[in-house]
Design brief:
Helices cover about 35% and strands about 25% of the residues. It is α/β, with parallel strands linked by helices. The protein folds into two domains: about 10-250, Alpha-Beta Barrel (TIM Barrel); about 315-395, Orthogonal Bundle (Arc Repressor Mutant, subunit A). The longest helix is centred in the middle third of the chain and has 17 residues, at about 215-230. It starts with 7 loop residues before the first strand and ends with a helix. The relative contact order is 0.13.
């Protein structure tokens, strides 16, 4: 199949938090002493400069400033990062620029400064509006601080903001989960991310697990929350994401549609699609998907500022799984044309797997698309296993 260059995004990682939450398995580190903001911003600038030639001539459609807690960095630091990015990369005129923030790290009035720095979307880590639940989760903010942060977002003209919520928390009931949804809706966000608390390896919760609601209770919570959100105009468009009309997170949709992205910052990952001969043309040769990584530990990352990232080509046999890992999160699923455009493989490569999952009522056809059923979204991991190379080979045999 011919290579069709995917859309391009930029991810920038900020690895520090005030403290490490017991459920978090992201690359985040509690601040020890003074935040090395100037040195880290300089390292990001060097990283951007060395990686930019890989995407020369392409346009960045979205930027995500994630972490960690990017809002630990002053608006002037964020402005410098975005200035460096614009110096080396071509931004779309309407590029979406998202900043992750925790309510406990925002001072009154600062969102207007982040807006002036170039941020036009914010993702706010609320997690819950129950003070006792926040303490169990190790969060440093209060429900009132989340409400204040939302008020400041509206005042700053940043009404396009997301609230992160978690459900199936220790001792949480269905009614309490709905109370969190109602509290979030009262703040008039444009988008809501709704994640089940899971025990991830390497976290404090994994070492000392709290008592969590059983699977049936967690599922009942989810179903009730989906219904409540739908009644208030929030459509579920991804397994854990809900949005008002026109407010889907463009950056994350690019991930889920297997688009490309540069990853800069400590522990950042990137994905770039190239032609097999390496010239970047969209001619008749096949796609090569390159994964890049940066050192996770912030000091190592800053020490290696300006070095070329580690890179590996994804084997063609692994591409169906990598594509499915993203695309099957979307409620709308994917079309055969998108699979072929993003992987350079013929749809026949996965057609038997798709038919098998349709037969199990995990996938369904909707026009030209193959999309997860409600059951498929609930058993997403089971579906994904079918796209592993050995699973497809076994079925073919």
């Amino acid at each position: 199949m011919a290579l069709i260059t995917p859309p391009l995004a930029l991810y920038v990682h900020f690895p520090w938090c005030v403290s490490k939450c017991p459920y978090c398995d992201f690359n985040s580190h509690a601040v020890q002493g003074e935040l090395p903001a100037a040195r880290y911003v300089a390292a990001l600038a060097a990283d951007l400069e060395v990686q930019a030639p890989q995407v020369a001539g392409r346009t960045v459609g979205s930027v995500f400033l994630g972490g960690g807690t990017p809002s630990l960095f002053a608006p002037s630091d964020i402005a410098r990062v975005l200035e460096h990015a614009r110096r080396h990369l071509a931004f779309a005129p309407d590029a979406e620029v998202t900043l992750e923030a925790n309510p406990g790290t925002i001072e009154r009035g600062r969102f207007a400064d982040y807006r002036d720095a170039g941020v036009n979307r914010v993702s706010l880590g609320a997690q819950s509006f129950d003070a006792a639940a926040l303490r169990v989760l190790g969060r440093i903010h209060s429900p009132d601080e989340t409400r204040l942060a939302a008020e400041e977002l509206h005042s700053a003209g940043l009404a396009n903001f997301n609230l992160d919520l978690m459900y199936a928390l220790p001792a949480q009931t269905r009614a309490a989960a709905l109370d969190d949804i109602d509290a979030a809706l009262a703040l008039a966000p444009a988008h809501l991310s709704h994640y089940q608390l899971t025990l991830e390896p390497g976290t404090l919760f994994a070492a000392r697990p709290p008592a969590l609601p059983d699977d049936d209770t967690a599922h009942a919570m989810l179903e009730a929350c989906i219904e409540r959100l739908g009644a208030h105009g929030f459509a579920r468009y991804e397994v854990s994401a809900y949005a008002r009309a026109g407010r889907c997170c463009r950056h994350n949709v690019n991930y889920w549609e297997f688009g490309d992205y540069l990853g800069v910052g400590a522990g950042a990952h990137g994905k770039l699609t190239r032609s097999a001969d390496g010239d970047g043309d969209s001619g008749d040769d096949k796609a090569v998907v390159i994964r890049t990584t940066r050192p996770r530990e912030p000091r190592r990352y800053m020490a290696a500022a300006g070095s070329t990232p580690e890179a590996r080509a994804v084997a063609p046999t692994e591409l169906p799984f990598e594509f499915a890992l993203n695309a099957l999160r979307l409620c709308a699923g994917f079309t055969p044309a998108l699979f072929e455009a993003r992987t350079g493989l013929a749809f026949e490569t996965i057609a038997p797997t798709v038919e098998r999952l349709i037969g199990r009522a995990l996938l369904e056809r909707a026009g030209d698309s193959c999309r997860p059923t409600g059951r498929g979204l609930a058993f997403l991991n089971d579906m994904l296993l079918e796209f592993l190379p050995e699973s497809r080979a076994g079925a073919a045999g």
